[in-house]
């Protein structure tokens, strides 16, 4: 569930991105997938169209229409932000961070890592009890 504070934060983010409620076309449609009779009988999925940018968003993650409305607006903000900022968007930065982490290390990095491990092992070896004479 979402709180009043989250709702206020979303409104502030929408205002910062220049998204007005008048620019959004909202439709409620029937969701599909898991959820049983509740999902099949009620129009709980939310479809948003941001008219100025042409971005379309459909959200049917939850069984609650109110929660899906909130999540759809949040997703719309993320997509518009990614389009406006491009490579600087948070999502793109997270993807790049993961890509850098998975990238293979160079030969020099591997050698330095092994040298550091050997150095650390030498330090740990000195921790042992003194040898009996």
Give a written overview of the molecule.
The structure is a single chain. With 133 residues, this protein is of the alpha+beta class. It has two domains: 4-86, Double Stranded RNA Binding Domain (2-Layer Sandwich); 92-124. The protein is built from five helices and three strands, in the order αβαββααα. It has a three-stranded antiparallel sheet, covered by helices on one side. The radius of gyration is 26 Å and the shape is elongated.
- The portion of residues assigned to helices is 40-55%
Residues in β-strands, percent: 5-15%
- Order of helices and strands, N to C? HEHEEHHH
The total domain count is 2
- Model regions low in confidence, pLDDT < 50 over at least 5 residues: none
Q: What's the total number of strands?
A: 3
Number of helices: 5
Computed over alpha carbons, the radius of gyration is 26 Å
- Report strand order across the widest sheet: 1-2-3
User: Structural class given helices, strands, pairing?
Assistant: alpha+beta
Give average pLDDT, whole number: 88
Shape: elongated
Instruction: Tell me what the CATH architecture of the largest domain is.
Output: 2-Layer Sandwich
The biggest beta sheet reads:
3 strands, antiparallel
CATH fold name of the largest domain: Double Stranded RNA Binding Domain
CATH class of the largest domain: Alpha Beta
């Amino acid at each position: 569930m979402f709180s009043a504070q989250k709702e206020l934060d979303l409104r502030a983010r929408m205002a910062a991105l220049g998204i007005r409620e008048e620019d959004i076309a909202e439709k409620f449609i029937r969701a599909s997938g898991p959820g049983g009779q509740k999902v099949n009988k009620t129009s709980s999925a939310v479809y948003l169209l941001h008219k100025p940018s042409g971005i379309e968003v459909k959200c049917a993650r939850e069984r609650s229409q109110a929660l899906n409305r909130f999540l759809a607006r949040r997703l719309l903000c993320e997509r518009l932000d990614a389009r406006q900022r491009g490579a600087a968007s948070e999502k793109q930065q997270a993807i790049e961070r993961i890509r850098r982490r998975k990238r293979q290390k160079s030969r020099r990095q591997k050698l330095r890592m092994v040298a550091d491990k050997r150095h650390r092992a030498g330090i740990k070896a000195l921790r042992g009890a003194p040898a009996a004479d």
